[in-house]
Structures are given as structure tokens and as C-alpha cells.
Amino acid sequence: MGVIARYREHLPVSDSTPVVDLREGSTPLVRSRNIGPALGLKALYFKYEGLNPTGSFKDRGMAVAVAKAMERGARVLVCASTGNTSASAAAYAASQRLRAIVVVPAGEIALNKLSQALMYGAKVIALRGNFDAALTVVRELAEQYPVALVNSVNPYRIEGQKTAAFEIVDELGEAPDYLVLPVGNAGNITAYWKGFREYHLGGRSKRLPRMVGAQAEGAAPIVVGSPVENPKTIASAIKIGNPASWEGATTARDESGGLIEAVTDSEILAAQVRLASSEGLFAEPASAAPLALLFRLLREGKVERDSTTVVVLTGTGLKDPDAALGNVEPPVELDGDARSIAKALKL
Description:
Layout: H1 3-6, E1 29-31, H2 35-39, E2 43-48, H3 58-71, E3 76-80, H4 84-95, E4 99-105, H5 111-119, E5 123-127, H6 131-144, E6 148-149, H7 155-161, H8 163-172, E7 178-182, H9 187-201, E8 210-216, H10 221-224, H11 246-256, E9 259-263, H12 265-279, H13 285-299, E10 308-313, H14 321-325, H15 338-344
Parallel strand pairs: 2-10, 3-4, 3-6, 4-5, 7-8, 7-10, 8-9
Antiparallel strand pairs: 1-2
Helix pairs in contact: 3-4, 3-7, 4-5, 7-9, 8-9, 9-11, 12-13
């Protein structure tokens, strides 16, 4: 079942709210077999959100946002996106026979995600400028025309995304010591903190995790304390210069006693390769940012090794495979039989 059916009692839905459901959520919490032990961690888990229907965590919030939009009579959805949100909004619109309009920064959307949005039937507008400019435009569009905005500024997106925190507690039996995740537009860290707090207040967990957010060095407005006019990073999902949920992110950081720091693109790509080659989990570059940050924080003694830590992998590596291919060996081309292959591979 999807997140609305599974967590109805914790969501702002009623009998008049349509049950929008692509079987999102219930993603695996994978215990690290290699990286965690190598780091000396008591327990390291990966929340693999890339196994949601369209390949990212966005589907959780989209299910609730679309359901509430339909409840209000909306027939057209609109969003700004660098990739994941576009695919999610378009898929859920298609499932409910709604119209989807996706505004993307020209030349800055992951091609695989663009193909998803187009295949689901969305009308895609490539806008000159970055994501922040695109978000400004769609917010104005939603204010002036009968369309429902489904970016994370929509509070129902946050409501749906908080269910990932519920799932972690349900599986572990308690909140982890640390929750480490990427921070771009900052809706997800806001949502996780909301979910953990609600479960804690409801008696479902005895403690709260420290929230640790990772930004990319070239797109780290929360870290530097001011908007970044021209954000730059290989991690397109967090290539955002002025997060819409900035306050939610800093609240989660401060209330939990956590932190938000930046990592370089080199650190991100190295972590992406290590995650895939050591754990068999291929995640988008943004998902590797929290793992890269975890490596550094452990070296600096800012994360206790005798802890249970969950790293959130927000989306599949198939979103942007070109970013990964530049950091691995290319295929070996040979003419010959099994003997020549064995010789080349030194079997």
C-alpha cells in the first residue's frame, strides 16, 4: 500500500481525500555490510529511496500533495524541477488523469528525468535561468492561475515525505542516533524532522536523532549563511542557491543538536563510487553527499562511532549516469575467445 493508506492517521487527510497511490514508500533500510564495519560504526544503514515508483523520495510527498489538490478540485499541476520532482509530478498526474506542467532550468535537467516527465505526458517548459528562477515563476503562476503548485513549498509535500522517518523508526524500533541526508531546497530535512518529532511526541520513539545535512560546496547557501546566486555542483538535485525551506532546515539542525556542512564535488563522486562498489547501491550524486560528509565527520570526531546512523539515499543513480561514468573504468573491448578474455582479466 502507499503512504496515504499506510499512515492515514498521521496525515492531514479525510474521507473526502482521494487515495492517490503508486505504491510509494516502504523502501528498504539496508544495513551496511562493508562501509559501516570499515568505518568502525556500530550500525550504519542506508534508506534507499531510489526504489520509489519514479526513482526518488519525491513520490512520498507527491502522493499527498496531488490527493489534496484533487480534493480542492484542481485539474492542473505545476512544478519547477532539476529532475526528480518533474518525473514524480508527471507520473502522479498521469495516474489521476490530470495535466502536468513542468518548468525546468534550460540545459540543467538530468536527461533521464526529462525523458520520464515527457513519457508521462507532461508539458515541459525550459526556462532560461537556474532552479531558483524557475521556482519563482511557478509560484507566480500558481498565485495567478488555476493550477496547483506541487513543489516542496506545498506543505502537503512535507507531510508525505515525513513518512520516511516513520518507516525508519518502525523498522529499527527506535530513532537512530544520526540521520544524514542531502540538503538542496531543504524540504526533506524539514520533513524528516517533523516525522521524527511526531513519532517521539506520540510515544513511538524514546529519542530524537541528530539531523546532519550535506550541501555541495558550490551550492551551500545554508552553510555560508546567504543565498548563492549561481550555484554549481555535479549533484543536480541539490544545485539550489536559495532553499525554499531554509528555515525548516536550520530549525531541524538547531533543535536536534545537529549540523549542516558542505562537501566538494570530488568527495561526492568518490563516495558515490564507494557506495556502489562496496554496497551494491547506485545512488544519484546528491545521495552520495551525506555519505561523503559522514566520512569527514568521523575523521574529525564529530560523529560517535558507537552509534546507529542512517544515511538517506534520495534517488537512483540512473537519474544522472554520466556523472558516474567519468569515475569508473570503461568497458574492455576485445576480439577473441574465452581464453583471450581470461588472459586480459588475469583469471
